[in-house]
């Protein structure tokens, strides 16, 4: 195959492009994870992730994809037969529900239309009916990566409290963390799940649990049979910066670099940058005459935008054309929306010019694939970028 000039645009909503600084950090020689030099690496990563989750409670790091940390969240706190209330925001919420079922839990799945976040009122209503407190946990996806919708996590906490219900609140923020606002302690989350390859700008391979004191207590006496995922096994060695088994040493170098970069930019500016790029992308979609999948105003994701394909046109054929001609990878539609939507990732290490390149490539792809559209998307996005101050410039 002949070489393709220029950088590939990896515009799927995770893995996101890895910054050169992070790649360089990862390329350092692997060290003895039980030797004296490792403690600093481990401690910096564990403490650093507390800052990213905005918690003063517990954080655990697994050499696993996000799915592993999903399992860790459930296995440490819940026992076979326990009821859990989950909300169908999209494909990832559905996968987490299926995992709960396979682990022997009894998930109740509140149906959703895949066009918005979890509905706190529906959760409160179900919890109020549960007078015997059989539901042990409420699980929601913060940023539903299959649809581009955000759940109001703080409102879900309020719904649980207003119903006077003791259920734990578990949140999948695998794609939300470090891209959009997330506040573990302030929002009263009990267990949060995240992964390395989305907002954290790392390659895949690390995942995280943030854990409240309350969930930690629950796990000491309860949970299901587990070994690899056990928080207690982790917390001993973690106290001095070590792990019970071989950690992802080089990914931890990268993680410490990524955390430093996020603070150099400022988390609030990182979040504002994502919101601004999302607003510009939505403007482009509307100007093309296409529809954004998220239909709930205020719940549109800063991480990605899922775009509905016009009737009779294949989203996957369009994505293949865009990849072939313009070297841009766009996200596919998953399960219920397979071939019906494509997803534009605008997360991670990303700037205005990269967004223009991405949207320019999408618009060219629409032309090339013969998808009916108006040719005004890129210009509409430019207008938004021009009107909304750049958080990076405003800070100077
Ligand atoms: C990516 C993602 C997952 C799956 O994570 P893996 O690292 O692929 O195991 C789960 N939930 C959400 C919301 C995601 O974005």
UniProtKB/TrEMBL annotation:
Question: What is the source species?
Answer: Roseivivax isoporae LMG 25204
**Swiss-Prot/TrEMBL cofactor(s):** pyridoxal 5'-phosphate
The source's superkingdom equals: Bacteria
Question: Could you state a single Gene Ontology molecular function term?
Answer: alanine-glyoxylate transaminase activity
| Keyword list, A-Z | Aminotransferase, Pyridoxal phosphate, Transferase
For this protein, the record's Gene3D superfamilies field holds: Aspartate Aminotransferase, domain 1, Type I PLP-dependent aspartate aminotransferase-like (Major domain)
Name it: Serine--glyoxylate aminotransferase
Query: Which residues are noted in the entry as substrate-binding?
Result: 343
The Aminotransferase class V domain, residue ranges: 12-319
Organismal lineage: Bacteria, Pseudomonadati, Pseudomonadota, Alphaproteobacteria, Rhodobacterales
Q: Which Gene Ontology terms describe the biological processes this protein takes part in? A: glycine biosynthetic process, by transamination of glyoxylate
Q: InterPro entries attached here?
A: Aminotrans_V_dom (IPR000192), PyrdxlP-dep_Trfase (IPR015424), PyrdxlP-dep_Trfase_major (IPR015421), PyrdxlP-dep_Trfase_small (IPR015422), SP_NH2Trfase/AEP_transaminase (IPR024169)
Transmembrane intervals:
none
